[in-house]
Amino acid sequence: MIETKQIERPKLILIADDIELNRDALEVVLDGQYDLLFAENGKEALEIMRMHREDLSMLILDLNMPVMNGYEVMERLREDELLQHIPVIVLTADKSAELQALQMGAADFITKPFDIPEIIQTRVSRILELSEGKKLISAAERDRITGLYSRNFFYEYASRLFQYHTEMHMDAAVLNIEQFHSVNAVNGREFGDSVLKRIGEEIRAFISGTQGIASRVEADRFDLYCLHQPDYRAVLNRIQEAVNRHSPNVSIHLRMGVMPWREGVEPVLMLDRAQAACNMVRGNYQNPLMIYNEEMQAQELMNRRLLNDLKSAVSEHQLQVYYQPKYDIQCDPPRLSSAEALIRWKHPELGMVSPGQFVPLFEGNGLISRVDHYVWEEAARQVREWKDRYGFVFPVSVNLSRADVFDPALVDRLIRLIEENHLDYKDIKLEVTESAYTDKASTVLETIHRLRELGFEIEMDDFGSGYSSLNMLSDMPIDVLKMDMKFVRNIETSDTDMRLVKLILDIARYLGVKVVAEGVETEGQLRLLKDVGCDLIQGFYFSRPVPPEEFEKLIEKEIATERS
Predict the structure, then answer these.
(1) Contact of 466 with 434, CB cutoff 8 Å
(2) Is the same domain home to 161 and 284?
(3) pLDDT for the residue numbered 443
């Protein structure tokens, strides 16, 4: 088979001049190298340009023509997005006209009377080469769907604005679409792209009056860097209303985070803070705008410190494992049955740091597994120590985060933990939150099945706070349901909450699993839970989480009670 080589067509140039002699002279100079079109005035030139806008590579334009002169043509080109990319070389004998033409976008000049042919040819060739390079840059510079800057160019231009225009007080804003993946899934990618395009158009219209720039950074995230605005709620409403008009039959919600100008703060950091603010209003349809403030900055600094200090917290044993007892209430008196291992952080400078502060932080940054592994090691060592001291095993429950469940080394790690401490698998119970089962459920179920087959007991933590269906629940490999404390809190005063507790216990009996009630604080709660058949409880009624030495007092009290 003979390979055919595609021959590139000559570039197309339009010559607009009302004097035929000038047109003929340029034809002689350029013919053979380029395809040529001709116009006798500016109006005719614009008509030809619109007709050939996809193919036209250059306009050679006389400034003084009837009907519409060259200045008017350039003004129209500057306003026309479809034509403004076409380079213009101006024909003029008036040196004073050059500055104005340059200001209006001219790329170069050919003087009258005409230069020698080689100079004209060189000027045309050079401008065409520059134009081609500019097109390549422009293709990478702009997002294909929205026409906004691409990520890298946006950050580069924002950095230049910051460095060279310190007099401009620029804000950073980040705009996101709520659940955009669902919008695409339900309505199709083509519809999703049309929404992105409409948002891009509205952002461009807004930005044009603020001396700012904007980008579609990724997927449904839009970054703006613009002069300080007094009312960003109005900005967000403007873009939201544009989306509503575009898609009146589809519910699409936007959210925005803003970092106001602060002297010396670079754009990248400002945009990170705007993104953090935007994340804080995820799912908040009533108030989808968040302005980054001093409180958020203080929290950010604290978070950064905790992230930096985690490694030393583990190596220096600043992390401490506390134990909260679980009591079997179906015997009289209630009997100490097992415990849950809970993490505390005794920071050398900050004092006791609440787990409510650092656990969600590490979960969000993928570092929670490091904390979990520490707790597992400490809990297993402690169970072994109590076994040696008291002659029996006191089981302890430890948490498996979603990150742990998806770790391919999880099973081997837990097997090694049991073997190194000479324990049985039932001595360490594994708690998995209900919400973990709903994320890539098949993978989670496969992992939990493997652990259960080894002999681990599986507890579903926070049952009732997630989204598992009853149909899915019947397939879950679990031994214990841990009832979320919100169901227990009001059972003494709310018949509805008590009926929900009974329903959960009925589900557990149907599944053949035990139930642990969390957050029990009063004797009345204990009595009601015992009467309806709840197996185990934990909460402040018996004990808060305590360090090992205090928990040992509870064990020794239990031993003394059994002997008496």
Answers:
(1) yes
(2) yes
(3) 78
Q: Tell me the torsion sign for CA atoms 91, 96, 98, 102.
A: negative
CATH value at residue 33: 3.40.50.2300
- Element (H or E) spanning 135, and its range? helix 117-141
Residue 436 to residue 467: CA distance in whole angstroms = 10
CA-CA distance, 384 to 390, in Å (whole number)? 10
Q: How many domains does the chain have?
A: 3
Segment 360-366 long-range contacts (CB within 8 Å, at least 24 positions apart)? 361/303, 361/306, 361/307, 362/307, 362/310, 363/401, 363/403, 365/307, 366/403
R_g of the chain, CA atoms, integer Å: 36
Per-residue confidence (pLDDT) for residue 220, from 0 to 100:
92
| List of residues 6+ apart from 297 with CB closer than 8 A | 273
- Burial of residue 425 (CB within 10 Å: 0-12, 13-18, 19+) is middle
End residue of a domain, out of 100, 120, 140: 140
In a domain, 173, yes or no: yes
Say if 101 falls within a structural domain.
yes
Q: Which domain holds residue 117?
A: 12-140
Q: What is the pLDDT of residue 147?
A: 85
Same domain, 474 and 387: yes
Residue 488: half-sphere exposure toward Cβ, Cα within 13 Å = 31
> In the chain, what are the helix, strand and coil shares in percent, each to the nearest 5?
50, 20, 30
Statement to judge: residues 77 and 184 lie in one domain: no
The model scores a pTM over 0.85: no
Q: Are the CB atoms for 492 and 525 separated by under 8 Å? A: yes
The answer as to whether 209 is a domain residue is: yes
**Contacts (Cβ under 8 Å, ≥6 apart) of 239:** 175, 199, 202, 203, 206, 254
DSSP symbols for 265-324: --HHHHHHHHHHHHHHTTT-SS--EEE--HHHHHHHHHHHHHHHHHHHHHHTT-EEEEEE
Where does residue 283 fall: left (phi above 0), alpha (psi -120 to 50 degrees), or beta otherwise? left
Q: What is the largest CA-CA distance in the chain?
A: 123
- Strand pairing report for 351-353 and 335-347: antiparallel
Domain boundary among 140, 169, 204: 140
Which tokens go with 401? Answer: 């985060």
pLDDT of residue 441: 66
The mean pLDDT values, 10 residues at a time, for the chain of 564 residues are 54 90 88 89 91 85 89 86 80 75 79 79 83 59 84 86 87 93 84 93 87 88 94 95 93 94 93 91 89 84 90 94 96 93 95 90 87 96 95 93 89 96 96 70 84 94 60 75 88 92 90 92 95 94 95 92 78
Q: Rounded CA gap, 188 and 545, in Å?
A: 50
Q: Are residues 536 and 412 in the same domain?
A: yes
Tell me how far apart the alpha carbons of residues 208 and 226 are, in angstroms, rounded to a whole number. Answer: 10
Whole-angstrom distance, CA of residue 177 vs CA of residue 157: 25
Same domain, 77 and 163: no
CATH number, domain at 473?
3.20.20.450
CA pair distance 207, 226, nearest whole angstrom? 7
pLDDT of residue 31: 83
Specify whether 281 is located in the same domain as 193. yes
Q: What is the pLDDT of residue 160?
A: 83
In a shared domain, residues 400 and 492: yes
